[in-house]
Write a structure and sequence with these properties.
With 193 residues, this protein is an alpha/beta fold. It is built from five helices and ten strands. The strands form two sheets. An eight-stranded mixed sheet has the order 5-4-3-6-1-7-10-9. Strands 2-8 form a two-stranded antiparallel ribbon. A hairpin with a 3-residue loop joins strand 9 and strand 10.
Amino acid sequence: MATYTFDVFTSLDGYGSATDEWGGYWGKQGPELLDHRDRLHAEEPLMVFGPATYRMFAGFLLGDMELDPWVTRMGALPKVVMSESMTDDEPLPLPDTTLVRGNAVDVVARLKEESEVPLRSHGSLSLNRALMAAGLVDRLQLTVFPVITGLTGEDPVFRGAADFDLELIESRTLDGDIQELTYAPTPHRPRAR
């Protein structure tokens, strides 16, 4: 069975992004992080996106921005977009993209059974919170940037998520102050009294 990794960037206070006042990765990415991210995507996982994150990445990849090599590499990987709201005539502008309709929990359970490569999702917060609640996320990979975005933070990564116990599988420090923490999440079960 293929493993599924929910990969997310976060500020120390738990936000997945911030207003335009802060740059991408909050302006903190350095050479160790960029090399590490490039190696992660060289493994050629099947990328899983919700529609909003897919549209955002397509905008980056098709725009005039200079992107980090790992982002460009991610855009070339096989991708599945899970959506019940996208129409058949909505373009899927990135290569090797498949639109899959249906319940995301059922679709990912099937993909985990059938895929010969690991599954990885970057961002797609609401999709991944639902997959965690269903017990389908094998690894939660948090890249914690050394910033607090109390005034400008947007998209709380775990707002509305269920409760989970986390087992630390791996940790590393990149560029001196960025933490990558990889956990195995398990839905929390209250102790019997």
